[in-house]
FUSC family protein
Amino acid sequence: MPSVGTSDGPGDHEPRRHEQSNDEPRNDEPRNDKPRKDKQRKDKPRNDEQHHPGPRRRQARGHERSASAPGAVRTAWYAVRQDLGLARAAAVRAVRRPGRERDLAAQSLKSALAALIAWVLAGWLFTDSLSLMGPWVAVVLVQSTVYQSLSQGLRQTVAIVIGTVLATGTALVLGSQVAALLLVLPAALLLGNLRQFGAQGITVATSTLFALVGSPVTLQISAERVGAAVIGALVGIAVNALVRPPRYLRDARAAVRDATDTVARTLDELADALVEGVDEELARSRRREADQLPARVEAVRAALAWDRESLRLNVRRRSTSSLLPSDYTTHDVVHTVDQLADTTRGLTRIVEASAERSGSEPAIPDWLAHDCARCLREAARAIEAYGHYVTGAESEVQHELSDGVYRARTGLDRLATRVDLTAVPDVGAMEILGPLLADTRRLVRALDTE
């Protein structure tokens, strides 16, 4: 019988091999120092630990939230301080010099004055507790222009009368304010959508609410509310028309000069590109900037129309200066600025096409590029003078405009005599040079007042 620890057969003389674990590499396999997936799996927290963290993890997250709270408070305080700084700067500008801030401050003070006068008059003449209709209407009717105050005042007064009459009559017939509200309010909302009411259409519905909510419905109370509204409308219109009536001359001037200065700056940049060499990316950037010029033309059109409306029924019409010279109309200025912007956009596209001629001779030879750049700069100076002239109507600026147009036209004539078509590299270059000179001459013709 074999003894313990021995075995019969060939394995008796060989040492017993221990069982190889899965974690150890075999001799015939290369060692891999990277951790195995099952090891990584053991190190990861279990799903129940992720979704249900223990007390320590919850405590750590609480510390993180408490630590981030002061940062949120500091951010909010910084935003508040920044807004306060902007408000303080606007107040300083309103006090120191004329501008948009001073106009807004004056309009706000006029609204407060109109509301105070309407409240005192309505409280003195009527006993209705809702005599607040007077100051409410007065505040609304201190509009941006005197003409707007009058037109909106008429619409709002008619809307208040219709809403109050409908609500009062229905409540007296039905004998119930709740039933009258359910019946009249939808009809008032539909009626307010009529085009004739404009922005005051909602007043029909609010008038029905004022008439049916808060106090008993009687003919006397409804009549007092309508009377308070009429007083508020008269006070709002009178205050806006007599106390510093609004005039938007400054906004129109700023819009015109912004458009002409932008066109002149674009022409200067194109002139620099012709002299220093046209870069494709830079030319594409200039073209994208020039594509924003139509928006400036629309701003000019809107500002001039707004200034023209502000003169209607304005007692300051004769005491304030005119925006445009006597020989210019609003249509003339808008047409000229539009033509300048459109032609400048065409010039940027021409310069961009010139930059895309990679690997070939430049479309504009060096001996001609300086002359073309000089013509663009002279046109830019003339456009700047035009913007200052039509917004200032000064004789000195008119001489600058005439001299600028003359220099630009003379330079173009001189350049046309120097152009040698045989020196142009190819037909593609000729297609670039020709429109460049033609658009530059079109700019000068748009400014020529002779």
Summary: The first helix runs from residue 37 to 43. The chain has 16 helices and no strands. The radius of gyration is 40 Å. Residues 1-51 have pLDDT under 50 and may be disordered.
